[in-house]
Amino acid sequence: MHLTLFPTETAERVYLKETSKILKIAFVGDHLPRKCGIATFTSDLLSSVAHACPHCQCFAVSVNDIPGGYEYPDVVRFEIEEQDLSSYLRAADFLNISNVDIVCLQHEFGIYGGPAGGHILALLRELRMPVVTTLHTLLPEPEPDQRRVMEGLISLSTRLVVMADRGRQMLEDIYQAPPAKIDLILHGIPDVGFVDPTYFKDQFGVEGKVVLLTFGLLSPNKGIEYVLNALPGILREFPDVVYIVLGATHPNELREHGEAYRLSLEILAKKNKIDKNVIFYNQFVDLENLKEFIGAADLYITPYLNEKQITSGTLSYAFGAGKAVVSTPYWHATDLLAEERGVLVPFADAPAITREVTALLRDDTRRNAMRKNAYRLGRDMIWSNVAQLYMNSFEGSRLEVAAAPSRKSLVTKTLDQKPRELPVTNLGHLWRMTDSTGLYQHANFSIPNFSEGHCTDDNARAFILAVLLDEQGEDPDNMRMLATTSAAFLNHAFDMKTKRFHNHLSFDRRWVDEQGSEDCQGRALWALGIGVGRSPFRSFQMMAGQLFALALPALVGFTSPRAWAFGLIGIHEYLRRLSGDSLVTQIRETLTCRLMKLFDAASHPDWQWFEEELSYDNAKLAHALILSGQATGQQAVLERGLRALRWLTELQMSEQGHFRPIGSNGFYRRGGVRATFDQQPIEAQATVSACLEAFRATSDIWWYEQAQSAFDWFIGSNDLGLEVYSPETGGCRDGLHVDRVNSNQGAESTLAFLLSLAEMRSAQNVMTSFKKPIRLEEFSSFSASP
């Protein structure tokens, strides 16, 4: 396969630094000392361009994946918090104010926040300069969110850089990117000499040995175990072989599983009796040390297990240094190692690794010819050449934008053009209300009321909040702690004999009820469904799945419509991960039919509802039908849910246009007098959640506006004009009376606000990033409030 560095349509562009008007370039992505391949690439590219073009000011905008970020060098001028959409918008303002000429974006789905990393689109949409985007990953079968992000990148970028011809073809065929917009520039590599490995071996204590090398951040998809299983066969013929595995464990792997993978490899080496021939260097080395490690290698191995890897910096570095390479046939390796530039072996095939490594070690002539072929092509990949090619792309994008009609730019924006400013998440009161057992039910003002103990209802809500906030990147360690405490409470609350949940636990840790209500069972099932379908942690998935299976059958025997509704939303979440469960699917159909029959029997032209009375958590009934109808494709179910919710929403709108929920001091029976007070936070929360679900199902912005109106009830847009939420404590007051707010800040009320805030933030993030309504089948909805 013939590899070119730049496409024909741009080959005539030659960058002349004497005539270029590019004076300031911003590189957006990760940056060292963050330990990831994108950080290394961004750092190398920035320094190479800065060295090649000393008249240009180059700086970085880096993304943080941990609280507090990293100890960056001075070249990093601005930091983005991965999951905080507002920080992307601030970064855009910073770049615009700084008069940047070109933004060079490094794109990888895993480094930006939002659905499939969609937050980065919000930044790009605000920029007023050309954007050149390097695509480090291209997916042949993208999920809807991933496709939408990629289409946004293609639309918002002036030029697109890929590192393999396969990538260019995929952009054209799968994403319909304009061919003239694509530049092919191979992965950059350091400039090293073609030297004998013996020169470097003594400093690693492997002089006289044959050195095999694999380097890079360690994680299970690297396939190191197959080399360890191949090594006994290699050693039988070449007993002086040493296999060096260089690299720290990937930070994400370390956070999730610790050093379990590395430990398993060490155990495997001992089991295979090759521990004297294997060296693990558990460190993230700088470039100078890395070049010496590569220099000492006689043969480089990449046993990666993911075929769809279109770029590998580690492979590029070893290949460009003139190393003979044995690799599995992932995409980048297939392209780079063609035409006798390396050897490919099947995935997960230890005998094939044994066979090909020994064959190369036997055949010095073939191995050295392979090295020369690699080194020759690698001369075109050194960073000084790559920097020149990027400058060509930058200059081309500048000229294209200069020749195009000027794009409208807004230095300031009117309120309708800005995302709504939502309150900052304050979890202080939530932590004060939580002990090692779980969340307390009630509070005296903002002080936990121990005498009222704990309840399953609130701990189910707390678990759902923890999962949602974890998805949004909010304080992951504390969110896992909250989820663990809440999950443990649910597990303890379940009675194996009755298959029902207790609800009320006294301060001295005694259950004070025989069993909880039907609604309590429904809320617990909702939380368990979230645990199965949403939690990233296997332990939560397993525990929740087991309890869900035990607790679900009782739901069929219940008579409470709200318990059915809660259960249906839990079923929906459960089926997101385990869609083949026929029993759960059957129960969903049964409960959906029941709600449909209720609605058809009770509704009239002036009363579009499921019952003769509006009481509590009203919007949940409509919510369940909207979600189930959309998920199953039953238009009649969806239509009834939307009709009921629209009627309820209009009924809850005051003459002044603000949200006015049905009061709990008497509720509202058909033909009777509607209770205006006491207004409960749970009603606002239920309406927020249901209206956002309607918005996702219909793309009708009216529903989003109704969700916003219900949310505003918490912050003063209500009958009394008083804040129900307390920003000082982070708690939410227990209700709105005729003359005041209830000053107690209990768990149900506080969770109602926090869940509403989290759901509004999720919806706002999607709208800001994609600038268009998202349908349910395109957007992974998260219905949060029980």
Helix-and-strand structural type: alpha/beta
Oligomer: single chain
How would the global form be characterised? globular
Strand order of the largest sheet: 3-2-1-4-5-6-7
Radius of gyration: 30 Å
How confident is the prediction overall: mean pLDDT?
Answer: 91
Q: Helical amount among residues, as a percent range?
A: 40-55%
Total number of beta strands: 23
Q: N-to-C terminal Cα separation, in Å?
A: 58 Å
User: Which parts are unreliable, with pLDDT below 50 for 5 consecutive residues or more?
Assistant: 1-18, 407-412, 773-786
For the biggest sheet, the summary is: 7 strands, parallel
How many helical elements? 28
Notes on the protein architecture:
With 786 residues, the protein is of the alpha/beta class. 46% of the residues lie in helices and 11% in strands. It is built from 28 helices and 23 strands. A seven-stranded parallel β-sheet has the order 3-2-1-4-5-6-7, sandwiched between helices. A six-stranded parallel β-sheet has the order 10-9-8-11-12-13, with helices on both faces. Helix 7 crosses helix 13, helix 24 packs parallel to helix 26 and helix 26 packs parallel to helix 28. It is globular. The N terminus and C terminus are likely disordered.
